[in-house]
Records
---
Amino acid sequence: MFDLDNSAAPALTAYGWDDGFAERFTPYAGQGFVPGRIVRVDRGRLDAVVADGDGVRTVLADTALVATSDPMRVPCTGDWAVIDLENGRVGDHVDGVVRALLPRRTAFVRSASSKRSEGQILAANVDHAVIAVSLAEELDLGRIERFVSLAWESGAQPLVALTKADLAPDPEGLAHLVADAETAAPGVQVLAVSSATGGGVEVLAAVLAGGTSVLLGRSGAGKSTLANALVGEYVQDVQAIRDRDGKGRHTTTTRDLLALPGGGVLIDTPGLRGVGMWDAEAGLARTFSDVEALAGECRFHDCAHETEPGCAVLAAVENGALPERRLVSYRKLQRENLRIVAKTDARVRAEIRRDWRQKQALGRHMMERKRGPRE
């Protein structure tokens, strides 16, 4: 039986087990259950690492007892599960069943679809969200802002990794790309890394050591290659990108939790074609802290930063203090986030309708003034 004392399972400590999770496991202690960290989920079953003497072993567990239609409560890579290895075997090839999931500390969530009001959890109990952006193509600052906003909202510390740095034209050009990324992600560390040359990999590994990190980005961003470099061995398949558009195929097809040699674990995820906003108001405020600070100086507290007089945000765009691209991105992500929230919040839907009616009334009033008094 598993002892709640962390010293009884030093190997699990390397996977993120600590006093906080031990306390959450207390209600299940003494029932023959063991804690396990989920390393992979696939079709109603999952792989998890559990303590085995001084080491760990991987077990296959069935998830039927925790099955739910709520996508926010399904088991996810990075979760800590309560596993029954003694009772409830469901087949010759299954080691046990999952009895419960321990409460999550953090969860990286995206919108499952722009047409549905469901979220999808990509990784749980994460300390660092590493956003991989390839320098083999034009730097997409809007994508960085989107990922960073969701990372802040998740409770994890975002970090931007500019991969394939060896493809940068020269050191000066690379420095400019890093600076541009830093502008798009205030307060976030930006590292240029190259899995081919090893440049920046040791620095990134040192930042991630001892915690749980998730590697995120689009296909072809070099996530699997970077994961191999961080782990120090070939653990993820790598495929070449297409010459015609610089895009890659989904090399990683499941979310895998990998142990890092310097301590801690890394969750590698499949390439993401799209990442929709999901109730990320606080995350957007941190990502666009420069815009938010300027907004506090506007004449009207409800300024939309469009045509209002005394708008400090528009004034900053006009004098070059704030890039217009950044304001456009801010508006776009705010609108998208509001639409997602409105799908599940009746109060927000009512506010949107009221605001729309007010704008319609104002538009009619301005048109009447323009036409002049009727005969």
---
Amino acid sequence: MTNPTAMPVERAAANDWDGGWYAPARRLPSPNFGPRPPGAQVELIVVHSISLPPGEFGGDHVQALFTNALDWDAHPYFQEIRGLEVSAHFYVTRDGGLWQFVSVDDRAWHAGASSFCGRDNCNDYSVGIELEGLEGGLFESAQYDTLCRLSQALRARYPISAIAGHEHVAPGRKQDPGDGFDWHRLQRSLGWPAHCFAPGALG
């Protein structure tokens, strides 16, 4: 049964875009992106978790990483990722703040070697959303709220048909967002049917 309260939210969200840029997000363009393959459509949301250094929250190291401005000497852990060039479309901080680094119309570098339902190269047809957190750890209510609004807005503008974790598209290689992420909570908030979620996400 359709959630009657979700539909007006989705219609309203369709007006919140400037091309592939989501107006409510704080824009910080990353150089780490490229064009999507000809004919590719944005059909998948991939949820990640990240914190730099791992388990430390509240700084601006993630923003610096995605814009190639991270001071590699600022923390010993950064030597392990020195020279890494990556990006995500969006980043949700612990307090629900939203940043955008790459237009959704472009291809961000977030999923790496990946496959969803037999289809490889998820970066080609997905949007990457990073949640500030530690894989396996818990996430804040404000983050779920922002993720829900963003997902609804994405689905209003693009032909989104599924949502998955990084762990679902790169099993054995990635474990984020991990056991601490509440997929059932997200489903209840979105009102999307179970088939929109990665196999195994809802148990």
